[in-house]
Design brief:
Layout lengths: L13 E5 L4 H17 L2 E8 L4 H7 L3 H23 L11 E4 L2 H8 L6 E5 L4 H6 L3 H8 L4 E4 L3 H17 L7 H4 L5
Parallel strand pairs: 1-2, 1-4, 2-3, 4-5
Length: about 190
């Protein structure tokens, strides 16, 4: 084997899904199950986590009990996301949940290290979150050595974000767009 090729030849195909617990990542989980079923592949739902303050902050002030608690919380979030996505039912494909320490994009690329893997991601949340953190789908698309599938935000979720934005503007007494712009005309 060479460098980053860490898999065994003849190993079962894998579908790696980035999970955060958001509705977008739950949609990605459902698409990942469909892809795994179609390919006869194993499903790897992956949740990446970092210590509070990031790796640099942790190196400055290490606290093993805090690190263990954060890892346990990440495991709970992954299992809660799986329960939310599948309602406690068997998804019908081999499933191997993975909790990995690291920044989300690099961690997902590290797990999806086989050329025949498929990396499935949901869209990032809103524009503010995209400005605060590197967009994971864009990072993975540039760096992954396997195909990357980005699942669009479900229409209902997009409408929910619009409603939340409207509610925030109203709560802060900011001007809102005219009603004719908010409601699409059905014809």
């Amino acid at each position: 084997m060479h460098g980053s090729e860490r898999h065994e030849y003849g190993a079962a195909p894998r579908v790696v899904v980035g999970v955060s617990g958001s509705l977008g990542s739950l949609a990605a989980l459902h698409r990942g199950v469909a892809e795994a079923r179609e390919r006869g592949a194993e499903l790897l739902p992956v949740l990446a986590w970092e210590p509070p303050g990031g790796e640099l902050g942790y190196r400055r002030s290490p606290c093993p009990p805090l690190l263990a608690a954060v890892r346990e919380k990440a495991e709970q979030r992954l299992h809660a996301a799986l329960d939310a996505a599948f309602g406690g039912a068997d998804p019908g494909v081999p499933l191997r949940p993975v909790v990995i320490r690291g920044e989300t994009g690099p961690a997902l690329v590290d797990v999806a290290d086989r050329p025949d893997d498929l990396l499935v991601l949901g869209r990032s949340r809103g524009p503010l979150r995209r400005r605060l953190r590197r967009p994971v789908p864009a990072y993975c698309a540039r760096r992954a050595g396997c195909p990357v599938l980005t699942v669009p935000v479900p229409a209902l979720l997009a409408e929910l974000h619009e409603l939340e934005a409207l509610h925030r503007r109203a709560r802060w007494r900011l001007p809102v767009r005219p009603l004719s712009e908010l409601l699409p005309v059905k014809g």
